[in-house]
Amino acid sequence: MFKTNFPQMCSVLILGSPGVGMLEFQMGMVKEYLEAEEPVVFVTLDLPPRDLLAVMEAFGIPMDRLGRGLYIIDYHSSLIGNSGEREANDGANVRRIHDLEGIMFNVANIYSEVKRPLRVFMNTLSTLFLYNQPSVVLKFFQISTSRIRSDFGTVFVSVFDGVHEEKAVNHLMALADGALELRFDPELNRMMRVRHMRGMTVPCRWIPFEITPAEEDTPTRVLQWR
Q: Which has more confidence, 73 or 219?
């Protein structure tokens, strides 16, 4: 099984090649944290809640944890202009917001409810680059990650590699405490490495991983090292 050991109260940038499985990689982390009884907040920028919940179910994340350790913040619906519509299968368990300020407002509210350090995921910053100037996205990243790591817990923010200006991506990596990279090798094997983590010594070597499909004896998808 996939295991992580990121410290509390830090910010981590997840940089992944398109198609490498960046969302699935995060699902493995979400499941692990929930199994350890750590509260998780997932901010969806790239997918509608219905699709996100389907991916979570495929990884064996129990839907009865929604609102009880697992919290979904939906900004995607507002970005594409249908924030007034409520999908039948998410009920009141998805917190819909209409602006970037709503993300931190809801994270703060969730923290006040659970009164424990949070593991916050934002997937993916690349969507914000489509709708905003790079300077707006960089400012949001700086302010939100700084406040989360100072007051609320750990934040993981994903962004696609190779589709944005190199200067902007370098700026993101400089602002984050750590960077986790996912890519394909020349033989199209999935590889990952922790590029850096502030205050820690990391090996920086590339490690292969797989996204194992669901089978009869393993009904949910999992991340595995090879």
A: 73
